[in-house]
Amino acid sequence: MGKRLNEETRLQIVKEALAGIKVGVLARMYTIHPETIRGWIREHRDEITPDEIPLADEHVQELQRLQEVESRYEKAVKVLGEKELEIEILRELLKKKNPAYLKPTK
């Protein structure tokens, strides 16, 4: 966001974090460094009462859904990366003139 956020917006972000939204998700959503948000949480968490923490309103639900999608995406990328590595290893094995897996065993 570049510009300094007003106190109300900072408190909203802190409340969302206290509601269970990961700091990384909030940081990407608001384009703020995660450490900045963590500082705000340390600074303001004692001022926020439990009834001020948002429950499952649409905004928080959307953030939780985004968090879940990101988690699934990270897992898929990891699996895909492993599969690509396996394919590359197999291609390298196929290029060898005398691969160990074709040598006769005694």
TrEMBL record:
UniProt entry tagged with the keyword Chloroplast: no
Pfam families, per database record: HTH_Tnp_1
GO MF terms held by the record: DNA binding; transposase activity
Keywords: Coiled coil
Listed SUPFAM superfamilies: Homeodomain-like (SSF46689)
Coiled coil stretches, renumbered: 56-86
Gene Ontology biological-process entries: DNA transposition
Endpoints of the signal sequence: none
Protein name as it appears in the record: Transposase
